[in-house]
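Regression test attached.
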Amino acid sequence: MVSVAHEVEAVDETAVRRRGGRGRLGVWVWRLAVPPVALGIWQLAYQLRLSNRALLPSPRTVWDATASLQDSGVLWPNLASTLGAALVALALSALVGTPFGVLLGMLPRAWEVLGPYLNALNSMPRIALAPVFVVLLGVGQSSKVAVGFSVAVFIFMMNARAGVLGADDEHRRVCLTLGASKAQMFWKLYVPGALPAIFAALRLGMVYALLGVVSSEILASQSGVGQLIVSYSATLSMAYVYALLIILAAFASALTLVLGAVEASLLGWQPSRPR
Amino acid sequence: MRIEAVGCVAAVTILVATACSGCAPATGSPGGELTKVSFIGVQEQGATGYAAADVGGAFAEQGLDFAPTWATSGSVILQGVVGGDFDVGNVGPAQLYTAIENGVCARVLRPTEGAAYGLIARPDLHLDVHRPFPDTLRQLKGLRIGVAARGAAQELVVRTLLKEAGLDPNTDVTWLAVGSPATALAAFTSGQVDVVMSYTQLEVNLRAAGASFDKVLVLSGSDTPLGVFWQAVAVANCAWADSHPDTVMKFCHALNQGFASLANDRAAGPKAFAYVNIGANADEAASLWETYKSPVIDIPPLTEQNWRYQSRFTPNNYTPDFSRHVVAGCATA
Amino acid sequence: MDAKPAPGCEHAVALRSVTVDFGANGRVPRSVLTGLSLDVEPGQLVALVGASGCGKTTLLNLVAGLVRPSTGEVAVFGQPPRVGRQDVGYLFARDGLLPWRTARQNVELGLEMRGQARHARRDTAASLLDRVDLSSALDLYPAELSQGMRQRVALARTLATDPALLLMDEPFAALDAQTRASVRSVFLDIWDDELDRKTVLFVTHDLAEALLVADRVVSIAGGRVRSDVPVPWSRPRDERSVVGQRDFPALYDTLHADLG
């Protein structure tokens, strides 16, 4: 019975670790303190004229610019255009890149044949293809989504493949000896096993899809934040540029937080600390 | 012994003389006589004055080495001059005034081009070219307008005109960046834009490519809705101008000589046009000069009144302080 | 669910002059097993012992169908081995539990592969986890279980499909002494309890453990069977009584000598 008590103790310890306790609250307090500190440093830099005031306006000016963007009705349609295109690009990348990546992981011969070409494609700066996409697809949402997709799809492909390759040999043997067919291996072993890597790809892919979309907008587009940034930079109206960048970053962060919450619920089985 | 010594001295002297004959004083070698002035502009009609000064030797005469870099838009030029990468740039005043309003420092030398724009539309849109201003601009409602760069001088000018015609430039039209003459041509002919802000170089290219267009609004010459408009002014980096006043004056003098030669010397204009790539050969440059010379010959003079007038094309009607931002005496140097 | 041996066939497992060579792809070839022959009767618990690298695991993998013999024949219940046979179960040294499945779902894994209906699966899993004393851990994830608990879940998983032949590769080696003893006794209780005992091939490096659990201890050395020692003592056995048996030292020494 001694061994049973020993095991029960181990379970209790794990449960306490998972709850976290007072430590979590402390983290949030520190987190919320960062923006005011950053604002303070910014204001100080402005007042001390550490940089050209045209290039680094005061926080107040940037706030006024934000209000002005909101009032003039310029902000929301363009923001929706950019974020919408980025989300569509992300979704397409996930839907296309993930199964392809899982298959590449499951079929080493396919990787041997296609790998060098995929790596070559991946090392091309796809943002440089933006002019091609604009000529092919026009200046609407399609070309932006295409650029965003071309950047983010490789992240899903490579991460999904890595997730599959990282599948424990033990797990693979267990499934094999339990009589799994190829399809069962795909759905019961490889896909769930690759989920952590896929979620990592989602977070990274969000950033890169947004990057691709904004780059395409800066080049040529009917609407979007990238266009606004170019427009305001032309007359060095930097307050508006910073306002737009901060708003964009805020939305992207919110999306990442949502992703994190979904990930935490789906991947609750992961050990919180290494045993 | 003496003959050999004389021979030695003679040989050395000849060697030194030969070596030194390779030292041409006017080729701008490091530590040589010429002072380098780095310039950034768009390679088109607006730079004709500088071209004439360089081709005619006016810069060299003042001991200056004129080093041009060609950009694709006013935004690049403005950022290059403000950032200190270039000493002098050629920029539209509307864009410059707004940047100064945003806190940028700049010193204006003189205007370098009068109105030389036009609004052209694709012929398949069948717009009516005979309507007067401002009525004709109402045809642009719902269309896509191409400008060299978003937010730069061309867009600012068209926005002002649209407002005068009663349209809302934010919602009644769609703005698209079409870049330099080459990419603007492609955007226009492929149908990516409906209307484009044209200028001499673009029209020349369009005709050369056999592409037709409807001129909806003439904006070149002295009798247009633009009035006493300066399409471009020479602007200098603050730090450079303030610490090299002599060089600035020499530059102004040479530039003024360039403009004078355009007005007085028949051969100067075509050569200057060839320098900025207007016209594929000398003959073509000469005939194009006859058609397109007036914006660089009849430039509204640099007066405080004309200076204030340009603010009409800024979003907030802002005029920078004349005495602070204009280099006194430059226009008459 | 028990697979009966093919008619006229006596052995649960039969190996005839089996050789396994590794070393394709330009690596130095080496023979892990050379001309090994072994017969196992149904219902026997056979322990396989030997020095590290002597080929015990390879032998299990042959029977499981994960490895093919270079020469010789292998028969499991009269049929050639095949990966994923329903009548063969394999318990590995490390539990191999899928971390994203609860204990119950892990036990159900094999039944899912066979296409069994949901209710039946849940009932089987629940009853098996009960037999290994883990009813409280039904909905816990592997990360929340101790090592001993995980290995018990793995055992339940292997038993879920009710295989007639059990392959066990040092199943308790990763556990500490106390946990090992308790999990081992859980296993022996289950095995001993059945009317139709399962055939077991039990690999271990612990000679005392071999003598404790097995009907027969086979030692592998030099790629083939060196000794084949029947264990005379009755069941149930426990550690203390086994070690105290008169013939224990002699049996132990025989096997120990084979390790060298």
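Expected vs. actual: identical. The radius of gyration of chain B is 23 Å.
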